[in-house]
Amino acid sequence: MRRRHMLAATAAAAGLAGFSSRAGAQPRMASLYIFVPAGPGGGWDGLGRAIEQAARQAGLVGNFQFENVGGAGGTVGLPRFVAQRRGRPDSLMVAGSVMVGATLTNRTPVGLKDVVPVARMTAEVGVVVVPASSEIQTIQGFLDALKANPGGMSVAGGSAGGTDHITLGLMLKALGRSARDGSYVAFAGGGPANAAILGAQVKAGISGYSEFAEQIKAGRMRALATTGETRSDPAIPTLKESGVDVVISNWRGVFAPPGIRPDAREALVRLMTEIHASAGWKEILQTRGWQDAFLTGDAFAQFLERDRAQTEVVLKEIGLA
Prior knowledge:
Layout (H helix, E strand, L loop, with lengths): L28 E8 L6 H15 L3 E8 L8 H8 L6 E6 H10 L9 E16 L7 H10 L5 E4 L5 H12 L8 E4 L3 H9 L5 E5 H9 L3 E6 L22 E8 L5 H16 L1 H10 L2 E6 H21 L4
Parallel strand pairs: 1-2, 1-3, 5-6, 5-7
Antiparallel strand pairs: 3-9, 4-7, 4-8, 4-9, 4-10
Helix pairs in contact: 1-9, 3-10
């Protein structure tokens, strides 16, 4: 179960045949509204902006409109998207594995079952960081401090019940402590979490690597370990090789509002398939270090059912649901 989010990159090749450059052609869509149920600066916002960048470069969409409504792992914004964009074929919401955990943890009446799966786009390993000023120099130092005093090791991350929170819970369990003993500080977006870590308001942080990448490269944060099966950066060890058998990654994708016609859903699937096939998108994946986890339509819907069931098992196992 700890590996439930690891996604096969081979899925990326599906459905790409037959797409060519649309340079000089009419945009596939005149405008596209993208709803991000999180604050600016985080992973979901980053995916939405990356979709805009690739679509504009490929001439696929004329205009974009963004709306950010953060809070509680997306469960504050999700009902708004469902109610206000119902039946609108020009609308997409960005979400991912964090929302799966958040809806279970918060027992929300509205969930991903109430929107229409369009495409899973990316997956990303997490990273454990501390501010550069921290006395903790290695992942072993962090693990020792966490085991000795979980409540004293405040850790910033995304919303409660999401992938970051689950990662901390699994680490605590592997160390022989209860997930409930941890001091997890949830933030609605990557920006506030970064600020809290840099300001030493918390001892450490856990999130997708891209959310901390700039701070790590600038030397303002120290990366202690990543959550992948193998190293994604040669200089950063994995939790697994450090003696903590935790392997987990965070998928992200896009969803349409309820009530759209089947042909409208297919049009959105075609749009995302062309974006995924574009040279601009491939460059974005490389630059940001995202795994290509492309999956569309019914196959994506089936993946969601499995992911929800597996996430519920893990959350109950570590005492978070």
